[in-house]
């Protein structure tokens, strides 16, 4: 099906017609695209809200925010529409890996390609592995993956009951922290035998707007454990920067390591005096700066900088 979406109308045409003859605009028939149901998250998670006091490193917040914003832009053709469970879990896996800085940076010199084309086409789907469990433990936090955010409370209570059943008799049950990830919203919850408290739902991906600062902060609070201080941290900042600059030819891998170890000065998204920009096209070029790509294992994330 060939789809033509404009600001004031939506039309489509069967590909069989396209194969038979030349087409004109009048050949397209109007259609109503599927709408994303509006969810009142404040109904599912009404006030009062919990405000965690955990500290988030500003350098990590800025670095992760930029990559997640560019990731959302590259995959906006999916995020602004409905998507199935498999695609949801692949995108959720990407969010978690970016937030945890668990990705590869592949550096590619300019090279000759047969043609120029988009890094992520409008018909393209993510190819990396998805997360299978609905509730998965990452460090000390349990992540709840659910597109139906209204159902997440019951999932949390059910999983917490299993924690209690598996706990040793005679020992007090500790509280458990859950990160609810629906892609459109993020919520951090904490539950014990007496209370369930949760943060205000924060918007993450809607296919149009960048992730909110609140959503990034909740991700990092949940997924980043307290940092130990390596001995190298006591070196002067200039020496730390020199070490990070020697990690790789490009700048992004050094910035990733700097966020993991809290080393060096904050990354300014520059290569020398030149700003690093998001790359949207695979281009046929033989000269120019290094291209730095974000990969999940052997699969390209759709995000690259040059």
Molecular structure report:
With about 300 residues, the protein is an alpha+beta fold. Strands 6, 7, 8, 9, 10 and 11 form a 6-stranded mixed β-sheet that branches. It is flat. The protein is about 30% helix and about 20% strand. Strand 12 (about 270) and strand 13 form a beta hairpin.
State the shape. flat
**Terminal CA distance:** 35 Å
Q: How big is the Rg?
A: 22 Å
Proportion of residues in extended strands = 15-25%
Beta-strand segment tally: 16
Instruction: Briefly note the structural class of the backbone.
Output: alpha+beta
Unreliable spans: none
Question: Keywords, please?
Answer:
306 residues, 30% helix, 21% strand, alpha+beta
Concise summary:
This protein is an alpha+beta fold. The chain has helices at 15-20, 41-44, 58-74, 76-79, 85-99, 152-166, 213-223, 237-245, 252-261; strands spanning 2-5, 10-13, 29-30, 104-108, 117-118, 135-138, 141-145, 176-181, 185-191, 196-198, 202-203, 270-271, 274-275, 281-282, 291-296, 299-305.
Secondary-structure blueprint of this entry?
Layout: E1 2-5, E2 10-13, H1 15-20, E3 29-30, H2 41-44, H3 58-74, H4 76-79, H5 85-99, E4 104-108, E5 117-118, E6 135-138, E7 141-145, H6 152-166, E8 176-181, E9 185-191, E10 196-198, E11 202-203, H7 213-223, H8 237-245, H9 252-261, E12 270-271, E13 274-275, E14 281-282, E15 291-296, E16 299-305
Parallel strand pairs: 7-8
Antiparallel strand pairs: 1-2, 2-3, 4-15, 5-14, 6-7, 8-9, 9-10, 9-11, 12-13, 15-16
């Amino acid at each position: 099906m060939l789809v033509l979406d404009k600001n004031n109308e939506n039309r489509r045409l069967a590909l069989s017609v396209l194969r038979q003859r030349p087409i004109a605009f009048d050949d397209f028939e109007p259609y109503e695209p599927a709408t994303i149901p509006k969810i009142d998250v404040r109904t599912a998670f009404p006030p009062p809200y919990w405000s965690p006091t955990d500290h988030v490193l500003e350098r990590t917040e800025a670095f992760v925010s930029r990559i997640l914003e560019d990731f959302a832009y590259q995959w906006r053709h999916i995020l602004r529409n409905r998507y199935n469970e498999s695609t949801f879990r692949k995108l959720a896996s990407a969010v978690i890996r970016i937030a945890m800085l668990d990705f590869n940076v592949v550096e590619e010199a300019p090279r000759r390609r047969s043609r120029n084309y988009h890094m992520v086409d409008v018909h393209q789907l993510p190819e990396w592995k998805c997360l299978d469990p609905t509730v998965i433990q990452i460090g000390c936090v349990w992540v709840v993956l659910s597109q139906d955010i209204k159902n997440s409370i019951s999932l949390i209570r059910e999983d917490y009951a299993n924690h209690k059943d598996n706990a040793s008799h005679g020992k007090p049950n500790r509280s458990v922290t859950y990160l609810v990830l629906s892609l459109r919203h993020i919520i951090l919850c904490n539950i014990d035998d007496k209370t369930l408290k949760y943060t205000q739902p924060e918007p993450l991906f809607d296919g149009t707007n960048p992730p909110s600062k609140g959503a990034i902060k909740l991700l990092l609070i949940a997924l980043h454990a307290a940092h130990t201080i390596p001995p190298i941290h006591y070196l002067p900042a200039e020496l730390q920067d020199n070490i990070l600059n020697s990690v790789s030819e490009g700048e992004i891998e050094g910035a990733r390591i700097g966020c993991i170890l809290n080393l060096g000065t904050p990354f300014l998204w520059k290569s020398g005096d030149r700003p690093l920009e998001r790359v949207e096209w695979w281009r046929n070029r033989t000269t120019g700066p290094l291209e730095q790509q974000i990969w999940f294992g052997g699969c390209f994330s759709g995000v690259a900088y040059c």
